[in-house]
Amino acid sequence: MTALVERFGVAVRQLRVQNGWSQGQLAERSDLDRSYVGEIERGRVIASIVTAEKLAAALEIDVATLLTHCQQLGERRAVQLISLAAIAR
Q: Domains in the chain: how many in total?
């Protein structure tokens, strides 16, 4: 899968854990199957925009905030890679 799909999954997992919820609790709140939430968190499936909206609503944030969190993860990862490359020189 693409890095975006993986980052989206990490973002969902981080926000779920911040709320102290299990995957089952997030699934119930978002009207999704628990195994599907797990697949999203592992970056194994591409969530539709409707699914992203359900997850965001369950997490009590808007979709833009969820995607911003996802983007920030990518930016932090890029900074880490640059730092590692500088150390390796």
A: 1
Domain containing 7 equals 3-88
The structure's pTM equals 0.83
Beta-carbon contacts of residue 74 (< 8 Å; ≥ 6 apart): 3, 4, 7
Tens-place pLDDT, residues 16-31? 999 999 999 999 999 9
3-14 burial: b if 16+ Cβ within 10 Å, else e: eebbbbbbbbbe
Check if the beta carbon of residue 5 is closer than 8 Å to that of residue 46.
yes
- Between CA 51 and CA 87 the distance in angstroms is 40
Cα separation, 23 vs 66, whole angstroms: 17
Residue 16, domain CATH:
1.10.260.40
SS3 23: helix
